[in-house]
From TrEMBL:
Positions with biased composition (Basic residues): 7-17
Protein name according to UniProt: F-box domain-containing protein
Residue ranges occupied by any F-box domain in the UniProt entry: 50-79
Species this protein is from: Lolium multiflorum (Italian ryegrass)
Residue numbers spanned by region Disordered: 1-36
Length: 429
């Protein structure tokens, strides 16, 4: 070993390690994700105007899902929702197709109500969450609720109990009849009382069972309404005074128990009559609405049904003068104007199979049973033993309404709309 003094003055040459190319040039795998992240814009940079334009292009189901993303998206989605609640489908009681020209009216077989979705995107609703629903019959549908009355026969002097269902949230409640003390001196009127029908009035929350319903009877020749206010199962009844301005000078038996909702009011048809009974939900006052006088000029008992046009106007559809006609409100015949003659009944009959050859019998077998409450521009056509159909007034398309088990869609058909707006888009108060 060399002495320490010999190595003091020597300069030691250090070896410099040459860096590898991997340390001189950054790795592509390290840089590309960072560059990509920097180049990809965040959705937060989109303006509210752009987001609203995107949300408006979504289907209703996707729009409601998007509303759950954040508070900001909820606010934007609420602006893009349609004003009117969406139609999901129809509830009805399936009926057997009877043989043509029965010698007497066939017995109505009560079957549980079923749901027919509007299209493939609609939910498949059912009443299986309420087993007792099979003992009730649907009488009204409004704001996501169904009102049902007992199917068994009840004396008309007695107000029935009601079953109210929310198929979307699978909630139910039973309303007992109004107590007798809701009407002062009730015993005086019970001998002449005739119960007619019921309907839903309003709903205060899209998911809670908070709503109002009305039923009415004829007391001593004048209509009287009972109103039920329900708050999550707790029901409170109040009885209104008899409406002395409306006189029922005929047998109340001719009233149809099922109400028709159109243009903001509730109507009850009267068989073989030239007028309808009207209830204004805002004032709870009754009145009569006359049908066009021209309908009875050529036909003693024409068939007519009240409803709504797709743009929300009050209308009547009738088979007067051997034609399917559409009348709307206006300054005309008792406040009605013939808007158009849709189709001759013989032409309509040619679209159906199996009808008699004789022209008179052909037209007797076919009549309009209802306007589609879904405001689709369709009329429901009922036949005497040849099935039930829908007829589009603009396109002339005729569709057979039958179930997979061979039954026909029963009358009436209740258009079912989603409770609106959805709960998470409703105001907190």
């Amino acid at each position: 070993m060399a002495p320490a003094w010999k190595s003091r003055g020597k300069k030691t040459k250090r070896k410099t390690k040459t860096p590898s190319s991997s340390t001189l040039v950054p790795s592509p795998s390290t840089v590309e994700p960072q560059a990509a992240a920097a180049e990809t814009p965040s959705i937060d940079v989109l303006t509210e105007f752009v987001l609203e334009d995107i949300l408006r292009r979504l289907s209703l189901a996707d729009l409601l899902r998007a509303a759950l993303a954040s508070h900001r998206w909820r606010r934007l989605a609420s602006r893009c929702l349609p004003r009117d609640p969406p139609l999901l489908g129809y509830f009805f009681h399936p009926a057997e197709v009877h043989v043509p020209f029965p010698e007497r009216d066939p017995k109505i077989v009560e079957t549980p109500a079923v749901f027919a979705p509007l299209d493939a995107s609609s939910p498949r609703l059912s009443l299986d969450f309420a087993p007792d629903a099979s003992r009730f019959f649907v009488y009204d549908a409004h704001q996501g609720l169904l009102l049902l009355e007992p199917s068994e026969s009840v004396p008309k002097v007695v107000l029935p109990r009601f079953l109210v269902l929310d198929p979307a949230t699978r909630r139910r409640t039973v309303l007992s009849p109004p107590p007798r003390d809701t009407v002062p001196d009730d015993r005086r009127w019970r001998s002449s009382r005739y119960y007619v029908g019921s309907a839903l009035l309003s709903r205060t929350h899209p998911t809670k069972l908070c709503f109002e319903a009305v039923c009415f009877a004829i007391d001593g020749g004048h209509p009287r309404a009972w109103v039920a206010s329900v708050d999550n199962g707790k029901c409170r009844w109040r009885a209104l005074p008899r409406d002395e301005q409306v006189l029922v000078d005929f047998d109340p038996y001719w009233f149809e128990g099922r109400a028709v909702r159109a243009a903001g009011k509730i109507y009850w048809h009267i068989c073989q009559s030239s007028r309808l009974l009207v209830l204004d939900p805002s004032t709870l006052r009754f009145s009569y609405l006359p049908a066009p006088g021209e309908l009875f000029a050529h036909n003693r008992n024409p068939k007519y049904r009240i409803g709504e046009t797709p743009d929300g106007r009050l209308c009547l559809v009738t088979d007067a003068e051997q034609q399917l006609q559409l009348w709307v409100r206006g300054k005309g015949d008792k406040g009605w104007i013939l808007e158009r003659k849709i189709v001759d009944l013989l032409v309509l009959c040619d679209k159906l199979r199996g009808l008699p050859v004789d022209p008179m019998f052909r037209t007797l077998c076919v009549w309009p049973s209802d306007m589609d409450a879904g405001r689709t521009g369709k009329v429901f056509i009922k036949t005497w033993g040849f099935g039930r159909f829908s007829f589009h007034m603009d396109t002339g398309k005729m569709e057979l309404l039958s179930t997979k088990r061979g039954k026909e869609y029963g009358h009436p058909m209740f258009a079912y709309f989603l409770a609106w707006p959805p709960a998470f888009l409703a105001p907190d108060n």
